Amino acid sequence: MPIAFKTVFNKEFAGFFRSGNAYIVLGIYALLSFAATFYAGGYFSLDNTSLTSFFLYQPEILIVLLPAITMRSWTDERRQGTLEYLLTQPISYVSAVLAKFGAAWLFGLLMLSVSLPFWLLTSFLTPLDNLNILSSYLVCILIIGTFSALGCTVSAFNSNTVIAYIISIFVLWCLCNLNLDFLITPAENISDDVFVRVIRSLNFNKHYQDFVSGQIGLDNVIYFFSVMIPALWLNVIALEFKKK
What we know:
Elements: H1 3-18, H2 21-40, H3 52-55, H4 58-70, H5 75-79, H6 83-87, H7 93-112, H8 116-125, H9 130-156, H10 161-177, H11 193-200, H12 204-212, H13 218-243
C-alpha cells in the first residue's frame, strides 16, 4: 500500500472518530435498525429464518446515515484550507479519491457489524438460513460501497457540508427508487426479451431482492460496481477541475 494512500486513508478514518460524528452515527444506526426490525419489520410475526425483518429497511437507513459520513470528505478539506495542500502532495488524484472512499466504506462496514450480535442471538432462538443471510449481508456491503462512492463525489462538488448531505440523500433516494418497468408495458407485444432484461437490470430494487432471496447472479454484482466506478471517476474529475 503506497504511503501517501495510507496516510490519507488513516487521516480520514480517524477523523470520523475525532469529530465524534462516528459515535453518533453508530448509535443512530443501531437505534433505527432495531426499531425498524422489531416494530416496522414485524420481527415476531414474520418468518425470520433469513432475518427478513432486519434487512427490509436497510437501504432506507443507509440512505440517511451514510451521507452523514461522506458529506465532510471534501467539504472539510476546502473549509479548512487543506484541499490545495493535499492536491500538491505526491499523491495521485485517484489515490486520494480511493483513500477517502475506502475510509468511508470501511466505516460503513463497521456500522453494519453492529448487527452481528443480533444475528448470533437470533440463531439461538430459531434455525436460520445462514447462506441466505450471508447473501443479504453481501448486498449491504455493496450498497455501502456504492453509497459511499456517490456521497464522496457529491461532497467533491460542494463546498457546504449541509448542502452535500441533502444532495447526497436525494441522489441515493433517486437511485434506490429508480423503477423503469413502465417502459416495459408499451413493449409487451414486442417479443424482445433482451430489452426487458436490460430495463429491469437498471432497477435497484431488482438487484437488492435477488441478493436478499439468495438468487445471486453476476449481473447483480456488476450493477453495483457499474454505479460505484463511474461515481469515483467523477470524483477524480471534480478534483482535477478544482486544481485547474
